[in-house]
Design goal:
The complex is a heterodimer of chains A (162) and B (562). Chain A is α/β, with parallel strands linked by helices. Chain A is 19% helix and 22% strand. Chain A contains 4 helices and 10 strands, in the order E-E-E-E-H-E-E-H-E-H-E-H-E-E. Chain A has an 8-stranded mixed sheet with strand order 2-1-8-7-6-5-4-3. A two-stranded antiparallel ribbon of chain A has the order 9-10. In chain A, helix 3 (110-115) links the parallel strand 7 (98-103) and strand 8 (120-123). Chain A starts with a strand and ends with a strand. In chain B, the strands form 4 sheets. In chain B, strands 16, 17, 18, 19, 20 and 21 form a 6-stranded mixed sheet that branches. Chain B contains 19 helices and 21 strands. In chain B, helix 7 packs across helix 8 (271-284). Chain A binds chain B through residues 56, 77-81, 83-85, 87-88, 91-92, 106, 108-109, 111-113, 115-116, 131, 134, 138-146, 149, 153-158, and chain B through 1, 16, 18, 21-22, 25, 28-29, 32-33, 36, 46, 49-50, 132, 159, 162-173, 238, 246, 249-250, 254, 284-286, 289-290, 296, 299-300, 303.
Chain lengths: 162, 562
């Protein structure tokens, strides 16, 4: 599955760290346990971190200024903890970099992911990209505020999407 | 926001074009998901959470569709649409649930998008009636009508319905999540048996404040909710609930579905630690984003139609004369009405528990009758209760006798509300894939056994709740007499609990002794009730006698050999 951004395929400039191998040069996503190693690299190459769903994102507080990407993961689409992690990264920690959804989310969750602050999706699922594009374009209304600060509709907490 | 209330349906939130657009987009989404499933692009495992988000279960024999009735409020037009669905897509009936919803038991997957479209035509849906998300918010069936009410809870129930509808962060929680809200000092919503129970009342400057109970529930681990926060200001209602659900989403167990409810998390962390986590989240939030400003509340409130309560000065006298002239009517008024805030009106409970019938089941024709009666007697407004009955909220006292005659003619005049015939029962093994035992036959036999209205009134207030399995959909823990179906080597047995209550005197029923075989259960309960009639003192109700004497006095009666 290619990398998705705003419902479209985009180029992936990031490399994921390979277990047991030294970190490559350039933009690399390291697992949380190799974060120190990533931070210790010389030069200013972009650094991202991949976290599991049980991680409290507040522990990234001090390193977030050095990170350009945080990858959250759906080990299964049923596990919604990544939504709370992404939203907390944006709302509590004011993280402005890329939040990447990984693992096995459903395209039907795409709108939820975006509204919780995730910006890109790289999934292990083998869906037709058009299903994701449709999921991105289908809806124009939501009933609650989100991290995207959508325009208020005027009645209740409703928002216009897109 | 100015709105012409004269054109709004009474008692419920009136959709506008934006709400309708939202629904039609969602129906289109589900139609496409069903197509993906039928074409094999979605596995059953992947499709399951999507259909559950639209209220579609796969049960023992067929799909079951659970239609949302937000806080139990329904219009006559909506009831007629439900009757149409029952006739066209089911077997001519529907079932009112303890969550104030309606279930159809014989639905075909391929019909479901059309059904949802038909529902959307009358501003209804099945969104979040199942799945691990925030479910239909329930509230007092006498909301906006009850004489003892301090604050109409429907406005905030609607705000919470909107807030929780496809909430991006909370659609995939560890488990289902249930919220109830009451605006009366008499708890008629079982606030402390919910994941979150809210009790509202007017606070400073008349603005509402809320007591927030958390971590209650029935199921296999019954727990009474604890007070997490009192006097929560209205403006913080959404923010505080967000904080609670965020903590639950982050920390609730996902390894074991039986330990995934918020009640387990609250117990595991301890109330103090749980409260600290919620408070910490609350303190960090951009609260302005979630603030419930007075204009937001006013905007929602303005979409609710208000009944023009206008009765002749002698309405109550007319009713009194009618009662005097007709003892059967008099009895029904005693059992099946509830005091209204207006002296010329009353709220009527239509029993969906006929003698020997299936609690909560209603035919398509009866749905149409109820719709017609609502149009004729109660501003077109209908309420569904968590006791699986139906309420007409505002009936003029001088017109009550005629309403009763119509109800009796339709088989809807059973005078048993709050009495032994007013049994809560889950669908049990007749429909449910989880059940171990049949709930419905026991309910039918008990209700036939105690069919005499004189006997029922003599026994007095007595709640019998029946669940076909440990998941407790029939709320057996909260029944004065609870009946739990268990499977013993392939045979159906029934475990009795005594002393439960969902009201202000909230309590979890205690198991009285070994489970009984099916054919002995009804006799044992009859002996139990006979024992109570002997043991009680003047004016005592069953629950009082039980609390005074304890289980021992009743155990002998239950286990006496026939």
């Amino acid at each position: 599955m290619p990398l998705l951004e705003n419902g479209r395929i985009t180029e992936d400039r990031w490399t994921e760290a390979v277990e047991g191998a030294p970190l490559p040069d350039g933009a690399v996503i390291v697992p949380l346990e190799r974060l120190e190693e990533g931070l210790a690299r010389t030069g200013q190459a972009p650094l991202g971190v991949a976290i599991g769903p049980d991680v409290d994102v507040r522990q990234l507080h001090h390193v977030l200024p050095r990170l350009e990407l945080v990858a959250v993961t759906f080990t299964t689409f049923r596990d919604g903890r990544a939504f709370t992690q992404a939203r907390a990264l944006r709302e509590h920690l004011s993280f402005t970099g890329e939040i990447r959804a990984t693992g096995k989310p459903l395209p039907d969750q795409y709108e939820f992911m975006l509204r919780c602050g995730m910006t890109t999706v790289k999934t292990e699922r083998a869906e037709d990209v058009s299903v994701w594009q449709q999921a991105h374009e289908r809806f124009s209304i939501a009933y609650q505020p989100s991290i995207l600060h959508e325009r208020r509709q005027g009645l209740g907490l409703r928002r216009f999407l897109g | 926001m100015s709105t012409n209330t004269a054109t709004l349906p009474v008692g419920r939130y009136a959709y506008d074009q934006i709400d309708r657009t939202f629904l039609s987009q969602r129906v289109a989404q589900f139609r496409e998901q069903v197509n993906r499933r039928i074409a094999g692009h979605l596995t059953e495992d992947e499709f399951k959470p999507l259909r559950l988000m639209n209220g579609l279960y796969l049960q023992l024999h067929a799909y079951m569709l659970r239609v949302a009735i937000p806080y139990g409020m329904l219009g006559a037009d909506q009831m007629r649409a439900l009757a149409h669905i029952a006739r066209t897509y089911d077997r001519d009936y529907g079932h009112f649930t303890t969550r104030q919803n309606m279930q159809f038991n014989w639905i075909r997957l391929e019909d479901t998008p059309d059904i949802l479209e038909r529902l959307a035509d009358v501003d209804m849906h099945a969104i979040q009636t199942s799945g691990n998300c925030i479910r239909n918010v329930t509230c007092d069936e006498f909301a906006g009508a009850a004489a003892d009410e301090l604050l109409d809870p429907r406005i905030h129930a609607e705000i919470l319905r909107q807030w929780s509808t496809l909430h991006p962060e909370f659609a995939f929680l560890p488990r289902k999540f249930k919220i109830a809200i009451s605006g009366s000092p008499q708890d008629r919503v079982a606030a402390r048996f919910h994941d979150i129970g809210l009790v509202a009342r007017p606070g400073p400057q008349g603005r509402p404040v809320f007591d927030v109970f958390v971590g209650g529930g029935l199921g296999r681990t019954p727990i009474i909710g604890v007070l997490l926060r009192d006097n929560l200001p209205e403006e913080d209602l959404v923010a505080y609930l967000e904080a609670i659900v965020r903590v639950y989403n982050a920390y609730g167990r996902r390894d074991n579905m039986y330990k995934a409810r918020i009640k387990i998390l609250v117990q595991a962390l301890g109330v103090e630690t749980f409260r600290e986590k919620v408070d910490a989240e609350f303190a960090l939030m951009n609260r302005a984003d979630y603030r419930l400003e007075p204009d937001i509340v006013a905007g929602i409130r303005a979409r609710f139609g208000i009944p023009a309560l206008d009765a002749p000065a002698d309405a109550a006298d007319t009713l009194a004369a009618g009662r005097k002239a007709d003892p059967a009517f008099d009895r029904w008024v005693r059992t099946n009405t509830h005091p209204h805030r207006h002296p010329g009106f009353t709220s009527v409970v239509i029993s969906i528990k006929p003698d020997g019938g299936i609690p909560g089941d209603v035919t398509a024709d009866q749905m149409d009758v109820i719709a017609d009666l609502a149009d004729g007697w109660s501003f077109g407004e209908i309420r569904v209760t968590h006791m699986q009955n139906v309420v007409l909220g505002h009936v003029r006292k001088d017109r009550l006798h005629e309403l009763w005659r119509r109800l009796v003619a339709a088989g809807l005049g059973t005078p048993n509300i709050g009495l032994v015939g007013d049994i809560i029962a889950c669908p049990g093994l007749d429909y449910c894939s989880l059940a171990n035992a049949r709930s419905i036959p026991i309910a039918q036999k008990l209700s036939a056994r105690f069919a005499s209205p004189e006997l029922q009134e003599r026994i007095g207030r007595l709640h019998i709740n029946i669940s076909g399995c440990i998941n407790a959909c029939g709320h057996h823990h909260a029944g004065h007499i609870g009946i739990l179906g268990v499977d013993k080597r392939g045979e159906e047995f029934f475990q009795l609990t005594l002393g439960g209550s969902a009201g202000n005197d909230v309590a979890i029923g205690q198991i009285i002794g070994p489970a009984l075989p099916e054919d002995e259960t009804v006799d044992a309960i009859a002996r139990l009730i006979d024992a109570y009639l002997v043991l009680r003192t003047e004016g005592e109700q069953f629950i009082d006698t039980y609390r005074r004497l304890g289980a021992a006095s009743f155990k002998d009666a239950v286990y006496a050999s026939a």
